[in-house]
Amino acid sequence: MSSSENRYQRVELAAGHYGIVLRDQRAVAFLRPGLHRVWAVDRRIEVRVYPSTEAILDGDLTPELRATVHAESRRRACVGGCQA
Questions:
Q1: Most exposed: 31, 43, 45, 48, by fewest CB within 10 Å?
Q2: How does pLDDT run across 11-41, given as a tens digit for each residue?
Q3: Which residues contact 82 (CB under 8 A, 6 or more apart)?
Q4: Count of CB atoms within 10 A of residue 49's CB?
């Protein structure tokens, strides 16, 4: 394994899941199902994986994360039902 390969963490997300990349506990990137490489040298970086049935609440979206998540990928939690 080369030294450049040691700098990345391999993250594979199964269908029906998504990932959130955090830096200093702040969400900075959204990962769709598939294979990803995430910068691993900085110990402040963390990847959390969630089932796609779990909503991303607007309050959880940082400006950086909001910029990476397309509107159709976001799910909003609706209290008392959603209206069109």
A1: 43
A2: 999 999 999 888 888 888 888 899 999 887 7
A3: 76
A4: 13
